[in-house]
């Protein structure tokens, strides 16, 4: 399959590109910079220059390929306004890609977060939230899945709050960055809240499986660790960086503060049973041991 991918140089995207190329697929990847283009070409992908706001470029990429994986998201998370702009840009991109695929029965795989459900681990059957800081993302993903009735094999892979590789990435990575900046390995709330996690290389396998065979309109959970306590995550970060581990106000984490403070475990039982997905790489707490002081 010839696959158009956006976000192909990120923690998830670079692993997905390698997984696709290693399993007989070819890749056309969106690149917004010379550095990204070089990285993608070095990995073996062909490059289409442009960024997520170039809707005509996105349509062109989708038109040239047998399937699409949409992973790109804005890089600015510093304020609620910046996060909202990123969600709006992603929503417009998904709409353009979906429109290009109408009536073709070609697959498109998009990404979202796992939902959180009070008192239990969320499952693939639980709906995405449509309010809050990233509610627009839930609405755009659901709109894409609705295209299943219009001849698009649209699917979604729901990612946990931390997608990690070599101790970097995701919400745990943001905790590490904050700890380096402030001198404290801090966590919001009482630290008992749980975050699901997955290694990027395991997530990449699931994206390939969903692209190849998942039915239209379906959602899947790329969850390896159902839920690690945030204070346990902070404890490893603090030990690796030689910093104190302390409770801090959730406001320290900007627009992500309410999300960081939420208990949000997630299950992937249905995904494993239906698609035969089996995570094999290091769990989050083990992988965080790769953090360099």
UniProtKB/TrEMBL annotation:
Domain NAD-dependent epimerase/dehydratase: 3-215
Region (Disordered): 113-135
Pfam families cross-referenced by the UniProt entry: Epimerase
PANTHER family given in the database record: NAD(P)-BINDING DOMAIN-CONTAINING PROTEIN-RELATED, PROTEIN YEEZ
Protein name in the entry: SDR family oxidoreductase
Organism: Streptomyces anandii
């Amino acid at each position: 399959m010839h696959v158009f991918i956006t976000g192909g140089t990120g923690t998830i995207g670079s692993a997905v590109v390698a997984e696709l190329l290693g399993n007989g697929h070819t890749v056309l990847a969106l690149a917004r910079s010379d550095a990204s283009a070089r990285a993608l070409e070095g990995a073996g992908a062909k490059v289409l220059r442009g960024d997520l706001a170039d809707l005509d470029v996105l349509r062109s990429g989708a038109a040239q390929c047998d399937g699409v994986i949409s992973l790109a998201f804005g890089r600015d998370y510093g304020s609620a306004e910046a996060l909202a702009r990123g969600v709006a840009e992603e929503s417009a991109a998904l709409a353009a890609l979906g429109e290009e695929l109408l009536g073709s029965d070609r697959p498109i795989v998009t990404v979202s977060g796992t939902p959180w459900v009070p008192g239990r681990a969320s499952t693939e059957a639980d709906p995405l939230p449509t309010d809050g800081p990233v509610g627009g993302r839930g609405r755009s993903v659901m709109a894409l899945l609705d295209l299943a009735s219009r001849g698009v094999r649209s699917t979604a892979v729901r990612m946990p709050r931390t997608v990690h590789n070599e101790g970097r990435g995701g919400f745990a990575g943001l905790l590490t960055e904050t700890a380096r900046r402030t001198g404290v390995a801090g966590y919001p709330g009482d630290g008992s809240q749980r975050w699901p996690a997955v290694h990027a290389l395991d997530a990449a396998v699931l994206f390939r499986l969903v692209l190849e065979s998942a039915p239209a309109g379906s959602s899947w959970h790329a969850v390896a660790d159902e839920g690690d306590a945030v204070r346990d995550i902070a404890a490893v970060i603090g030990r690796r960086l030689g910093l104190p581990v302390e409770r801090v106000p959730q406001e320290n984490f900007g627009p992500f503060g309410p999300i960081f403070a939420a208990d949000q475990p997630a299950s992937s039982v249905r995904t494993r049973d239906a698609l035969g997905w089996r995570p094999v790489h290091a769990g989050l707490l083990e992988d965080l041991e790769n953090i360099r002081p």
